[in-house]
Amino acid sequence: MSFTNSSKKKVALIDCNSFYVSCERLFNPKIQNVPVVVLSNNDGCVISRSVEAKKIGIKMGEPYFKVKDLVKKNNVQIFSSNYSLYGDLSRRVMKVLKGFSNKIEIYSIDEAFLDLSYIKDDDVEEYGKKIRDRVLKWTGIPTSVGISSTKTLSKVANHIAKKNKAGVIFLKENVDDMLKDFDVGDVWGVGKQLSKLYKKNGVDNAYKLKNISNTWVKKSTNVLGAKTVMELRGVPCIDLETQETKRKSCCVSRSFGKKVTSIEKLRESITTHCLNAAEKIRTDKQTTKAITVFIRTSPFDKNRKYYSNSITIDLPIATSNSLELVKESINGLKKIYKYGYFYQKAGIILSKLDDSSEKEFNLLAPIMEDRSHTLMKAIDFTNAKYGRNAISIAQAGINNTWKMRRKYSSKIDTASFDSLPKISV
DNA sequence: TCTGGGGTCCTAGGACCC
DNA sequence: TCTGGGGTCCTAGGACCC
Q1: What is the DSSP code (8-state) at residue A178?
Q2: pLDDT for residue A3
Q3: Which of A206, A253, A380, A419 has the fewest CB atoms within 10 Å of its CB?
């Protein structure tokens, strides 16, 4: 059996260029052609860089304090991250992309896969350009487009498009030449460990990985490793996930702006995280059956003893009730807290999430659930209207000395963003 | 002084059962 | 004094992603 070229699948990966930096640039004409970086929460690490910043040698994920000298010397513009702004712009980009294909997988805040199988090979590059142009014109965000027969290959194509600023790359006959030039560690699904293993065995580029023996890869890695190899050969193994699915776990955690030693401060932060997580799952109409609390000291501090611990509490009845979850998590915290350590981070994870419509049978549940449901709805409504944590509980604390640093925020918030004039086209 | 946060999936190995 | 074998289910931890 053979397939004609026209029956072959085509998938595009559209990826926003330096997404967070591009978002900041939309509101600040002064930072167009200069080096710009956006920092992670707590102003900890570099998580987005403009091309100018990359050229200077600022690496992805590097701690900010390590690049401070480079920043000063080159007058790099620094921004604390502003996720509500990036989320808003992301939704706009995705909305434009939905106009090109109804088979779309929103893969991350700045990436989406589109099924373009219905476009002829000869036309697909032009189509990619059309997508880029429209996203740029309607949202102001620059993108790169990679197109090929599998998701993994479209990732490769996108990577190349970014690197040589082609904008759009369609990988087809030229695929092997490109793969020979492509570091094995840059292949989607090949992380640090796999990269090490492959290179140890002489497989240092994507072309060699493509031609590796099936038995070896199955024996030496796992099913995902084997799938990656098949995808490099142009055999689709990873489906486009066009259905939006609900999350299976929900984690809220933060590093502290200053190290924390007392259980009272830890309790405040855990309470805050709990309230936020509970609100998130209620928004998605979900309930949880297990809550994990974790705390840890800094893994980088060589002068102090490291401590990290967590505890998971199974809940008898699935719930999304803030007060219940706070109560359980604080009980958990008491069990893992140890005096005498300088804590750097605390968080909670809600797991075993389920649809709240499928309630478990319990005699008391109907009454209890109903009353708490009304209260939670009132809390969520007020917080949505007057800002997050307008209604909180006393334990969350008011003077939060442990709150994270956000020294370089552009202070563009969702409200002011919404009030900006929209570009008409 | 200062090193993010939020996810998913896979697998080995333990617990348990007959 | 002698130690089976096979199956399922669950979970912690690792690897990966952005």
Answers
A1: H
A2: 46
A3: A419
Distance CA A36, CA A25 (A): 9
Over the stretch A11-67, which tens digit does the pLDDT of each residue have?
Answer: 999 999 999 999 999 999 999 999 999 999 999 999 999 999 999 999 999 999 999
Distance of CA A50 to the CA centre of its chain: 19
The whole-angstrom separation of Cα A120 and Cα A236 is 18
Class of domain A250-396: alpha beta
Give the CATH superfamily of A11-170: Reverse transcriptase/Diguanylate cyclase domain (3.30.70.270)
Specify the pTM. Answer: 0.92
Helix residue ranges per DSSP H, A102-232: 121-139, 151-163, 175-180, 192-200, 206-210, 214-220, 223-232
Q: Closest residue to C14 by CA to C1' distance? A: A193
CA of A363 to C1' of B4 (A): 43
Residues in chain A: 425
Domain ranges for chain A: 11-170, 175-232, 250-396
Q: Is the CB of A51 under 7 A from strand B?
A: no
Q: Do domains A11-170 and A250-396 have the same CATH topology?
A: no
Instruction: Give distance CA A209 / C1' C8 (Å).
Output: 36
- Interatomic separation, CA of residue A20 and C1' of nucleotide B1, rounded (Å): 26
